[in-house]
Design brief:
The protein is about 15% helix and about 55% strand. The chain has about 120 residues and is mainly β. It has a six-stranded antiparallel beta sheet with strand order 1-6-4-3-7-8, covered by helices on one side. The longest helix has 8 residues. It is elongated. The mean pLDDT is about 90.
Length: about 120
């Protein structure tokens, strides 16, 4: 948590069990709550290479929208709980957008975020 909102860090481990190397455009991630944007990662012009039958670890940083936007989306009670360090659970959608070996790839997962 900082003055501009919430910062999340995801430790990502991608596995490539295939006999073909993969070239993955650094993923862009959007975090949504009830189809409204809570935050996103930065756009990075980098390619992650994953050799055949191996794995790659990297970190992804997600910065939330400002506190005013969070209040509008989550409500004042939820934001106050976050700011006061009280535990809260949010149902979110994580949307991942990238390219794998030049082909577009997009995936959305629903999960519960515990802060």
């Amino acid at each position: 948590m900082n003055l501009t909102g919430i910062e999340l860090k995801a430790m990502v481990q991608l596995q490539n069990p295939n006999p073909v190397a993969l070239r993955l455009q650094h993923p862009f991630v959007r975090i949504l709550h009830k189809n409204k944007l809570l935050g996103s990662s930065t756009v990075e012009n980098a390619v992650i290479e994953i050799p055949e039958n191996s794995q790659k670890d990297f970190d992804l940083h997600i910065q939330s929208a400002g506190w005013l936007t969070l209040i509008q989306i989550l409500g004042t009670e939820a934001v106050n709980q976050i700011r006061n360090g009280k535990p809260i659970q949010l149902n979110i959608q994580a949307q991942i957008i990238t390219r794998i070996n030049g082909l577009p790839y997009e995936q959305t997962d629903t999960m519960t975020l515990q802060l």
